[in-house]
C-alpha cells in the first residue's frame, strides 16, 4: 500500500528509527516501525488485520473518515484513505479492498 504523510516533518520522523524512538520512546518507536511494515506490505486496507496486534479500525465522531492501528495503549497511528473520490461499495460504505493509498496523519492518544 502506498503511504503518504500529512507533513514533511512527519515523513522525516517516520523514515528514521532514531527520530521515531526519540519522539515516541523506545517501545512505541519499535512498534510504530512494525505497524508501518504491515501497512506497507498490505495490498489494500482490507488486508490490514482487524485483530490485535494491529487492530485496524474506523474512527467515529469528529474523526469520522479516519482509521487507526494500535501501537501501545493508548497510542494509535491515525490515517485516512488517500483517494479522491473515495472508492465506495454499492451501499455507500468505503470499499476497503480498493483503498491502496493512505495518508498518515499522526500518532496520538485521542481518547
Q: Structural class per helix/strand content?
A: alpha+beta
Mean pLDDT equals 96
The portion of residues assigned to helices is 25-40%
The number of distinct structural domains comes to 1
Low confidence ranges: none
Short description:
The protein is an alpha+beta fold and 111 residues long.
Descriptive overview:
With 111 residues, the chain is α+β, with helices and mostly antiparallel strands. The chain has one domain (2-108): YaeB-like fold (2-Layer Sandwich), CATH 3.30.2310. It is 28% helix and 22% strand. The protein has three helices and five strands. The chain has helices at residues 8-14, 17-24, 26-41; strands at residues 2-5, 57-58, 67-70, 76-81, 101-108. A five-stranded mixed beta sheet has the order 1-5-4-3-2. Strand 2 (57-58) and strand 3 form a beta hairpin. Helix 2 (17-24) packs across helix 3. It starts with a strand and ends with a strand. The model has no long low-confidence stretch (mean pLDDT 96).
What distinguishing features does this structure have?
globular, YaeB-like fold, 3 helices, five-stranded mixed sheet, alpha+beta, 22% strand, 111 residues, 28% helix, 5 strands, single chain
Amino acid at each position: 500500500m502506498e503511504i503518504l504523510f500529512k507533513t514533511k516533518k512527519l515523513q522525516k520522523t517516520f523514515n528514521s528509527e532514531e527520530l521515531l524512538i526519540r519522539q515516541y520512546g523506545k517501545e512505541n518507536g519499535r512498534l510504530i516501525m512494525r505497524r508501518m511494515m504491515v501497512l506497507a506490505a498490505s495490498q489494500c486496507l482490507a488486508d490490514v488485520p482487524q485483530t490485535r496486534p494491529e487492530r485496524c479500525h474506523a474512527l467515529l465522531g469528529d474523526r469520522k473518515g479516519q482509521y487507526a492501528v494500535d501501537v501501545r495503549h493508548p497510542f494509535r497511528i491515525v490515517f485516512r484513505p488517500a483517494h479522491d473520490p473515495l472508492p465506495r461499495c454499492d451501499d455507500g460504505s468505503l470499499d476497503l479492498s480498493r483503498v491502496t493509498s493512505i495518508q498518515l496523519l499522526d500518532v496520538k492518544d485521542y481518547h
